[in-house]
Design a protein that fits this description.
Helices cover 37% and strands 16% of the residues. It is built from ten helices and ten strands. The strands form two sheets. The protein has an eight-stranded parallel beta barrel. Strand 1 and strand 2 form a beta hairpin. Helix 2 packs across helix 3 and helix 4 packs parallel to helix 5. The N and C termini lie far apart (68 Å). The structure holds ligand IDC. The site of ligand IDC has 16 residues, from strand 8 and strand 10.
Length: 328
């Protein structure tokens, strides 16, 4: 056998070592890591940060909107700083109800989404979108495995946030959600010590006041999601949110609309304006639902519009134009 020179062996060793190290994507380092201080999302200098952006519809439903041009366009033209990747767990080729090939496809879409968001200079929320599977315990094992995998993959991305249960509902209580959340947070923390984690609450992420009475204490950088649709939810829900804030609970609006809560029906712009006031006053992040052209009033793009980036005013629905105006 031919003997290698010591320098060649050293070079090989070095190359092998380099290959095992994950490269930090060039753009990932640009966005400062976020943390939670009191009830507020802040940057490294403790300055309040508000994330504003849009959520995809389900990644199985409308994958075409996860593309580089769209993300870069929205950042530049809509003035957003975040996107949410909504991955349904149960509905329509959900992560937990579809087959292995479907799971792989969804993970690839997330990977692309994170890559595009990173390149566009956006924060990105990986959303475990429970809905018809009302109790997050239904797929707890799957959630733990999924988030461990994601946290390992993206631990060097300072722009990734994790949302671990979109909307617990159907009689699910905080006593159900809390132990689930603790398990998933623990799984994420085993790979990533400080990424911001968003936790849902019962009644489609409206019972933040209940979470506030018994929050998770063992970990930092946790926030609790508040979801509203101004066509259905008004002052009553803002009072619940205020009660939670008063008890010191950090809130994050990871999904909202101004249609009714079915995602359809008339827009309520007056109530929407009251909500915007409330969010601004309390420096709460807000993500609008949803980036797609489905025939429903909560879609941002008109059904007739097939473009998947570079939309003009005339391409957006009334809700789309209203939302973009808020961001600008
Ligand atoms: C809706 C979509 C709709 C889809 C349905 C699936 O807009 O196209 O058929 O989900 O069940 C939520 C949920 C979000 C809903 C949205 C509107 O997080 O998944 O999307 N909504 O109903 N919570 C309150 C409203």
């Amino acid at each position: 056998m031919k003997k290698f020179k010591p320098w060649a062996r050293l070079a090989c060793l070095l190359a092998a070592l380099l290959l095992t190290l994950e490269p930090i994507p060039a753009h990932a380092a640009k966005l400062p890591a976020l943390k939670v201080k009191g009830t507020q999302l802040v940057n490294a200098k403790n300055k309040p940060v508000r994330l504003k952006g849009v959520s995809t519809h389900g990644l199985s439903w409308y994958p075409e909107y996860v593309n580089q041009k769209a993300f870069t366009y929205m950042k530049k033209n809509w003035n957003i700083n975040a996107v949410r990747l909504a991955m349904y767990t149960a509905e329509y080729n959900g992560y937990c109800t579809g087959d292995a090939a479907n799971r792989k496809a969804l993970e690839q879409r997330i990977d692309k989404g994170v890559k595009y968001a990173t390149k566009a200079g956006l924060y990105v929320i990986i959303d475990w979108h429970i809905l018809s599977d009302g109790n997050p315990k239904a797929y707890e094992k799957e959630a733990v495995a999924f988030f461990k995998k994601m946290a390992k993959k993206y631990r060097k991305h300072t722009n990734v946030l994790y949302e671990i249960c979109n909307e617990p509902n159907g009689g699910t209580t905080w006593a159900d959600v809390k132990p689930y959340a603790k398990k998933v947070v623990k799984a994420i923390r085993s790979k990533d010590k400080d990424a911001v984690i968003l936790i849902g609450s019962p009644t489609w992420s409206q019972d933040v006041d209940l979470a506030a009475q018994d929050p998770i204490k063992d970990y930092k950088n946790l926030m609790y999601t508040l979801h509203f649709y101004a066509g259905t939810h008004g002052e009553y829900l803002r009072q619940k949110a205020q009660a939670a804030l008063d008890m010191g609970l950090p809130l994050f609006v990871s999904e909202f609309g101004i249609s009714d809560s079915s995602g359809n029906g008339a827009l309520n712009k007056e109530e929407g304006a009251r909500w915007m006031e409330f969010l601004k006053k309390n420096k709460i992040s807000a993500i609008g639902w949803s980036l797609c052209n489905k025939e429903e009033s909560s879609a941002l793009i008109k059904p007739s519009v097939k473009k998947t980036s570079g939309w003009k005013k005339k391409d957006l629905t009334p809700w789309g134009n209203w939302l973009v105006k808020q961001f600008r």
